[in-house]
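Students often ask why we bother encoding 3D structure as a string. The short answer is that it lets us treat folding as translation between two languages. Here is a chain of 298 residues written in the first language.
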Amino acid sequence: MTKDPVNFDMAEVKSWFDLKKTAKCSAKCEGWNSKTYWITRGLDKITSNSIISWTKKSLLRDTIPLPRKNDFRFENRVNAESRGETEEGPTNEAGINWNLFDFMRKRSHNLTDKSCPSFIPVYEFPLVAGRKGQLLSDFILFSKNNTTGHSLVELVELKRESANDTPLMAFAEAVCYIIQLLRCWELPGFQSELKTVLNKATHDDVIRYPDRINLVLAAPQKYWQNCMPNDEFKQNESAIKKRFDEIIQGVNGVVNKKIEKMEMQIILADCKDNGASGLTARKYSHPLSPSVFFGDHP
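And here it is in the second language, the structure alphabet:
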């Protein structure tokens, strides 16, 4: 794979994991993950054929990184009592992550009506076997409606206000994490651990694949203002969101054929009070299907 991110050839990428690997050098060298060029050198270069081939490759059983088989640490994440207390304070990514987790955890504890969906928030969720090349999803919410049986996964990729990574990088990370999560889903260890913590009263033999998946790219408002020069993101947000939608539908199409039929959508959101008051969907990102984050039930 070429080491020149400016003249980076998307044709050399074989999976979504490959794309994610190129991001750090790319940002430093004004490549596809730079705030100046992430549209022209990144988003505009992703073709329909790329989306299909990358997704197919990423879903293969032997594609690196291999999915984690067990020890997902649901309970450790769920029962954590402190997080994000670093020298950088609550505005760093770890702090925002903890704030959001704590907000959703309190919401889940306040649900006493059995007709409401059971949901469980987890953060820094490990998706790779071993430490090398670990994929840690910032935040995942697993939900199941006790009445209808419908299940929902909401995966959040967070960026702090001063993050160098672009929305395209956040998007690529979210796609990598949801694909890896779906690769883990069929494994007995994942099934057993999820069933233990989600809706313990269920009589299902297995936890089904989610009916719906919401991929949420979330950050403080100033991140969105600064992710392109001269606040250009605001002027182009509608077109960018539309392109993200097109890509995610391409991913969704492959997932439906290779795994199981489900609905997938992308949502851009603002972190309210650095996550302490939850998330607000941005102007062009009103959820098309139910969302626990944004006030509806699956």
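Translate back mentally: Residues 1-5, 81-88 have pLDDT under 50 and may be disordered. Keep this in mind for the problem set.
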